[in-house]
Structure formats: C-alpha cells, structure tokens
Design goal:
- The complex is a heterotetramer of chains A (172), B (106), C (122) and D (409).
- Chain A has helices spanning 3-24, 28-48, 52-76, 91-111, 128-137, 143-164.
- Chain A is mainly alpha-helical and 172 residues long.
- Chain A folds into two domains: 1-81, NADH-ubiquinone/plastoquinone oxidoreductase chain 6, subunit NuoJ (Four Helix Bundle (Hemerythrin (Met), subunit A)), CATH 1.20.120.1200; 127-172.
- In chain A, α2 packs antiparallel against α3 (52-76).
- The N and C termini of chain A lie far apart (58 Å).
- With 106 residues, chain B is mainly alpha-helical.
- Chain B has four helices and no strands.
- In chain B, α1 (4-24) runs antiparallel to α2 and α2 (28-57) packs antiparallel against α3.
- The longest helix of chain B is centred in the last third of the chain and has 31 residues, at 63-93.
- Chain B is elongated, with a radius of gyration of 18 Å.
- With 122 residues, chain C is mainly α.
- Chain C has one domain: NADH:ubiquinone/plastoquinone oxidoreductase, chain 3 (Methane Monooxygenase Hydroxylase, Chain G, domain 1, Up-down Bundle), CATH 1.20.58.1610.
- In chain C, α3 runs antiparallel to α4 (93-116).
- The chains are: A mainly alpha (172), B mainly alpha (106), C mainly alpha (122), D mainly alpha (409).
- Chains in contact: A-B, A-C, A-D, B-C, C-D.
- Chain B: NDH-1 is composed of 14 different subunits. Subunits NuoA, H, J, K, L, M, N constitute the membrane sector of the complex.
- Chain B: The chain crosses the membrane at residues 6-24, 31-53, 65-87.
Chain lengths: 172, 106, 122, 409
C-alpha cells in the first residue's frame, strides 16, 4: 500500500472513531470536542483528495466558527444538559436503521466496479482556486448561486439575531 | 492511488453515525451535531467525485468545488438559525431536550 | 499534479507533529523533574481565596452567541471571497460589480445587527 | 551549485540530500528525512527565539517605564530568561480537583503547536520556505482556529468559573477581530492574484502597505488584538477575571501559554511583514537569498518593536470598547474599503504604476476620512459614560428637585 493510502486509513479511522465517541458521550462539551476531532479528520481526508482549499476552509469555517458557535450555545443552555438519559426510546431502532444503511451502501460500493476510463494526473499548473473564483462570478457559471448565497447568509444573520436577541421583559 | 469506493464507504459511515445521532439523541444540540456530521459526509462525497471526475476528464472540473462551497454556506446558515432557535426555546421552556419541548406548548 | 501540493502537505503534517511533540516532551520531562506533593487545599479551584460554590458553570449572556453568529456569517463570506480575490486580476468589470453587490448585501446585514443593538456589549 | 555564503540553507540541504543519496537511501525517504530535519530545526529555532524575545521585551518595557529591566544575570541581564526557563522547568504541576484531564493537559501543547504551525509556510527567502502551499494565506488564518480551540480546552478543562468565563471572553474577542483581519488579508490576494505566500511576496514591486495603507493598519491592529497583547490584553485582565483562562495552570504548562503568546506576537509581525512589507524582498535578495532572510527579520523585528511600543504606551481597553472598535469601526471600514479598492484598482489597472500607486493611496485616504467622519459622528451620540449616572448629592438646591442628576431641575 502506498503512503497516501495509509494516511487515508489512519485519518478515516480517527474520524469515524471520533464521530462514534461524539454520539456516545454524555456531556455535551465532550461531544463538541469529539466533533472537533472528527472535523479535523475530515480536513485530512480533503488533503488526500488534493482539495487544499477545502481542507483549509474546513478548519476555518467548521472548527473556527461553527464549532465555536456550538460551544457558546452549549454554555448558554448548560443547565438542562446533564439531566436525563442521552438517548431516546428509539435508540435501538435508529441504530438498526443506521447500521443497515451503512452495510447496504458498503456492499454496493465494494461490488461496484468503476468503468475502466483511464485516469490522468492533472498538470502542475493546475490552480483550482482561480477556477472556482472565476466560476463563482461568471454570468454563465454560478453567479446566481453566489448572490443567493449572500442573501442566504443575510437571511440567516437577520433571522438568528431576531430569534436569539433578548427582548426586554423576557429572558432569564 | 486511493480507490473511490474507500471515500464512499467512509462517507457512508459518517452519514450513518450522523443519522443515528439525529434519530436517537435527545439533546437538541447533539442532533445538530449529527446534522453537521451528515453534511460533512456529503462534502467528502462531493469532493471525492470532483477529484476522480477531474482525473477522468484530464482537467480540473469546477462543478464539484462550487457545490462543496455551497454546502459550507448552507451549513453555516443552518447552524446559526438552528442554534438561535434552540437558545430561544431554552429561554422559554428551560430545556433543550427535544421530546420535552414538544410537550410544552409555549 | 499535485505531487508538489501533497509534498507541501507532507511537510506541514511533519511540522505539526514536531510542533506538538516538542512542548509535549518538554512538559513530560518537566513533570518528571518537578516535585509532586498534592494536597486538597492546593488542588482546590482557585477563586481568589473565596470558597468555591457550585459547578464551574455560570449562565452566559446571549451576547457571546450574537458575536459568534456575526463572526460565522462574515467568516463564510470572506471564504467565498478568497477565490474571487485570486481571480480578481483576470475578471471583467461585471464580475467585480457582482462581488461588490455580494459585499453590499452583507454590509446591510451588519447594519441591521448594529441597529438592533446586537453588537453592543452590555 | 550555489556557494555557501550566498544561500547557506539551500547549500546545506543539497549537501544533506547528496549525502543521503550516496548512502543508498531511496529518494522518497530522502524527502521525508529532509522535511523532518527542516521542521525540527525551524520549530526549535522559533522556540529559542522566544527566549531572546523575553529578554528584549522586558528590557524595553522596563526602559519605557523608567526601570532598568533585567540586569543581574549575565551581561545586561541577557541570561535572565534562561534562569527563568530553568526555574519554571522545575516547578510543580498542579492539577486542580475536578479538572478534565485530557483537555487540561492538551491545551498548552495545542496552544504552542498552533503558534508554531504558522512557521511552516512562511517564505524566509527567495529559495528557503517550508511548504509552498497553494492556499498559504488561508492556512495562516485557519491555524488561528486551532489556537481558539486550545483556549476553549483550557477554560473547560480547568473546572473553574473564572477560567471558563475568561476563555469564552477571549474567544469572543479573537473571533471578532479575525473578521476585519480576514477581510484586509483579501487585499494582498487581490493585488497579487495568488494565495501562495511566495507569490504575494514577489508581487510586491511596491509594498502593499503603500498601495493599501488603511487595510494594512486594520490588519496590524487586528493582529495585535488576535495575540491578546496590550492594549487588547483583556484575556488576562487581572482586575476583572483573576487571570483569564490560564488561572489553574502552573509550572511549565503555564509557561507554555506564555511562550505561545510571545511566539504569536512575533509570528503576526512576520505575517504582516510578508503580506504588506514585501517579505524578503530588498536590494540583492534575489541573488543572495541570505540577504532576503535578513530583510525579512529586520522588517518583522520593526513591526515587533512597534507592538512593544503599543504595549508600553497605551492603556488597556474595556471589553465593550474592544467590541465596539471591532464591529462598529474596523469591520464596516474593512468591508467598504474592500469594495472601494476593488473598483478603483480595476480602473487604475492599465495606467502607469506611479499613477496607480498615487490613485490607490488617494482613494484609501479619502475613504478613510469619509468613513471616519460617518462612523465617529454616530458613535459619539451613543457613547456611554464610564460610571453610573451622577448620584444625587445632598445639596440645598437638590432638596426640591426630583432630578436624579441633581443640578438645575
């Protein structure tokens, strides 16, 4: 096996292990920290896919921002977190569903033979970020999704500020 | 050279774990973390297909990258609003456990 | 292609291992060298001599969440702008105006949060 | 073959490679060994630099405050930091009761590692750089996220109210300031058309600090805030938060938070020098790469001295001032400047370099003045008093007024 394959195997084992620990941990803060490990593992997976831009964005957006938002939310709502069991009555059924889905998909993927199209390595001059940048603002490319993304972000900002903002007279 | 199926199996595993968290956990934020995991699985899939499709074509393709970027935007917006809702619900009901919340009609 | 890219990441991976190993080894060695005499008073939580009450958790204000929220939105936005900035020199005016509209929409969001008072630290 | 005195690092690298190949080591292993040796040397050098920094900073701050600074151990107190390091090495490690051990012990390591990892991508001279990463500048910003994670780990692991509050407050400050920082980092990317740090350096025929002075200023201030140094050192405001997220740490674990802070201070100077001050560029740096290294160190050293000057002369901000400055001045300023520069540079693209420089300089100045007027006129109306409203004072004329503020009713 090549070195890259070993990197992939180790990274994916860590990712999946951290994801399992995340689901299994009782304290929400531990779950968040395990989620951080899983996200880091996914960043390494992106590196093996030669998508450095997304590996770095994974770090920047998921760990740097989303995870911190989750930690703040956990801190804001901590009072009720330690009480009660962490899984609901559907847990066994859910485990069954998830297990069946994964087994079935894995079976399909192992049996599935990719057609023998020859693969070619890409040239050294290849710069994916420039391509992405051009496509995002190209009127025939993805200009509309790009603008819609900004409207979506605006809507999320306004909506979340409106919902979370403590109005007078209410609040703890 | 890593076979494409390895990525798909990993992504399926992450997706299933996320799905389990969404179905089985009682804490609203834990459910949200499950959703994050599922979105990550989707991104692994998208970028894996992007990588192999680019190699088949012999030139970098742009679609997969744009989709992955949009998933990041989506994840950010979804987390922001969902956590705001959770915080707001916590302020009214003093709980973040989903099945308790649905009983209390605010 | 990207063998240069993977090589760069290999270096970063090795560097990360070294950067984590150096302080870890130093702390381990210092742990061997340093004295070790724990006692309950020494190990107690330090709160300026005041007796600790309750768990280490206090109600946080929603302010923290609002700042993190604004940060998340602008972080994602700047991440989307980086590819645009790389391509900037090769773009026509139309594309630049588009990015400016993109920015202007978010400036609107910032001013909404400002007017709403979400950016005031109370 | 380059001569040793032109480019010692490349010379040694080639020598090492030749030696290993002649021993029959396979080429891929030669690469790994070269990388590992390079990483080890660079990381060690960065950590040793902190010792020098400790001495320099204490000496200069002492002088600013009309004291002598360290002056007993060794000539001019030069050996003082070594004595300090030896002392802290032998101090007891106290683990507070109820601490979450894994996060508690991981935090200082991660903190130092995050500060060190920046060094992996810095171009030190025309030929010497660790990794010429195709997303170098984003990597610099992303590594900061690991530092924030380390702070959260420390705050949570300590099982202490003050540590947790301090950690969350620190993180709130850090993430806030990374918004204008990222936005102003877009400007060098726009001018150079690349995320490679080496290309950004080479593109600086004219230093970007001249083309975009206001974004450079925002970047510098935001990076001082990112490091948590005075005047933004609220994270360790003793009077408010005991000592921030590192209260419960002792011995070398505490020392490593300190090391990380100093290392980050120099690192952000280095980043500023690379992004805005032309990195290793200078007369003769192409032909003699070793000169480029000297230039880079001089430039980042100058930025670092400026940061020491900030620390020595400016009073600490209050937390609401810190947040206001960021969200109501820097972020709108950076956003609007980005739009203005993008538009202006498009029209100035084809003109003479001289016209372009002057035009951008003028537009920066104009935008700054206009926005400063706009933002500060709004802010002054809203400015809150430091203390509570004036308490009623028992004075004869107050007895008949109902005004809390006293005075004329």
């Amino acid at each position: 096996m090549s070195a890259l394959q070993w990197v992939f195997i180790i990274a994916s084992l860590i990712t999946v292990g951290a994801a399992v620990m995340m689901v299994a941990s009782h304290r929400m803060m531990h779950a968040a920290l395990w989620l951080a490990v899983a996200l880091l593992g996914v960043a390494v997976i992106f590196v093996t896919l030669e998508a450095s831009f997304f590996a770095v964005v994974q770090l920047l957006v998921y760990i740097g921002a989303i995870l911190i938002l989750i930690v703040f939310a956990i801190m804001l709502t901590q009072r009720s977190t330690e009480a009660g069991s962490r899984l609901n009555s559907l847990a066994w059924g859910a485990a069954g569903v998830a297990g069946v889905i994964w087994t079935a998909l894995t079976y399909v993927f192992i049996r599935w033979v990719v057609s023998g199209t020859p693969m070619q390595e890409l040239g050294a001059s290849f710069d994916d970020v420039v391509l992405l940048g051009k496509a995002l603002v190209d009127a025939e490319g993805f200009a509309v999704p790009f603008e819609v993304a900004s409207v979506l972000l605006l809507a999320a900002l306004i909506g979340a500020v409106y919902i979370a903002f403590e109005r007078k007279g209410e609040g703890s | 050279m890593i076979p494409l199926s390895w990525y798909l199996i990993l992504s399926a595993a992450l997706f299933s774990i996320g799905l389990f968290a969404v179905l089985a956990r009682r804490h609203a934020i834990a459910i949200l973390m499950g959703i994050e995991l599922m979105l990550n699985a989707v991104n692994v899939n998208l970028l894996a297909f992007w990588h192999y499709w680019s190699q088949v074509k012999g030139a970098p393709q742009v679609n997969g990258m744009v989709f992955a970027a949009m998933i990041f935007v989506l994840a950010a917006a979804e987390t922001a609003v969902a956590l705001a809702l959770i915080i707001s619900a916590y302020r009214r009901h003093h709980t973040v456990v989903v099945d308790e919340m649905s009983l209390l009609k605010g | 292609m990207g063998h240069e890219m993977l090589n760069a990441w290999l270096y970063i991976g090795l560097f990360t291992l070294v950067a984590a190993a150096l302080p870890a080894i130093a702390i381990f060695l210092a742990g061997l060298l340093s004295p070790r005499k724990p006692n309950p008073i020494k190990d107690a939580t330090y709160e300026c001599g005041v007796e600790t009450v309750g768990p280490a958790w206090t109600q946080l204000r929603v302010q923290y969440y609002l700042f993190a929220l604004a940060f998340l939105i602008f972080d994602v936005e700047s991440v989307l702008l980086f590819p645009w900035a790389v391509a900037y020199q090769q773009l026509p005016l139309f594309a630049i105006v588009e990015a400016i509209i993109f920015l202007a929409i978010l400036v609107g969001g910032l001013f909404y949060a400002w007017r709403k008072g979400a950016l005031n630290w109370q | 073959m380059t001569a040793f005195w032109q480019d010692p690092i490349t010379f040694l690298r080639l020598w090492l490679e030749g030696l290993l190949l002649s021993w029959g080591v396979p080429a891929s292993w030669v690469l790994v060994i070269r990388f590992a040796v390079g990483a080890l040397l660079l990381a060690t050098a960065a950590l040793l630099l902190v010792i020098l920094q400790l001495w320099l900073e204490r000496k200069l701050i002492g002088r600013i405050q009309d004291r002598l600074g360290p002056n007993r151990v060794g000539p001019w107190g030069l050996l003082q930091p070594i004595a300090d390091v030896l002392k802290i090495f032998t101090k007891e490690h106290i683990t507070p009761a109820g601490a979450d051990r894994v996060p508690f012990n991981l935090a200082p390591v991660l903190s130092v590692a995050a500060a060190l990892m920046v060094w992996a991508v810095i171009p030190f001279s025309a030929t010497v750089m660790g990794a010429d990463l195709n997303v170098g500048i984003l990597y610099l910003l992303a590594v900061g996220a690991l530092g924030e994670l380390a702070i959260i780990l420390a705050g949570w692991g300590s099982n202490n109210k003050y540590a947790l509050l301090g950690a969350l407050r620190t993180v709130a400050q850090l993430i806030s300031y990374s918004v204008p920082m990222t936005l102003s980092a877009l400007v060098p990317v726009m001018f150079s058309g690349s995320l490679h740090l080496n290309v950004i350096t080479q593109a600086q025929e004219v230093w970007f600090v001249v083309l975009a002075p206001v974004p450079a200023l925002i970047f510098l201030t935001a990076s001082v805030a990112e490091v948590g140094r005075a005047p933004f050192d609220l994270p360790e405001a003793e009077s408010e938060l005991v000592a921030g997220y590192s209260v419960e740490y002792s011995g070398l674990k505490f020392g490593f938070f300190y090391v990380a802070e100093f290392l980050k201070a120099f690192t952000v100077s280095l980043i500023f020098a690379v992004l805005f001050l032309g990195g290793w560029r200078g007369p003769g740096a192409e032909a003699y790469p070793v000169l480029g290294f000297v230039y880079l160190m001089l430039k980042s050293g100058a930025v670092y001295l400026l940061m020491i000057l900030f620390r020595g002369t400016l009073p600490r901000f209050r937390i609401d001032q810190v947040m206001d400055l960021n969200w109501k001045v820097f972020t709108p300023l950076a956003l609007i400047l980005l739009m203005v520069i993008a538009l202006a540079d498009y029209f100035l693209r084809g003109t003479f370099p001289f016209v372009r420089v002057l035009g951008l300089l003028g537009i920066n100045g104009l935008a700054y003045v206009v926005l400063d007027r706009l933002l500060s006129s709004r802010e002054r109306l809203r400015r809150r008093p430091v203390a509570q409203p004036v308490r009623p004072v028992a004075r004869p004329e107050n007895l008949i007024t109902s005004s809390d503020a006293g005075g004329q009713a």
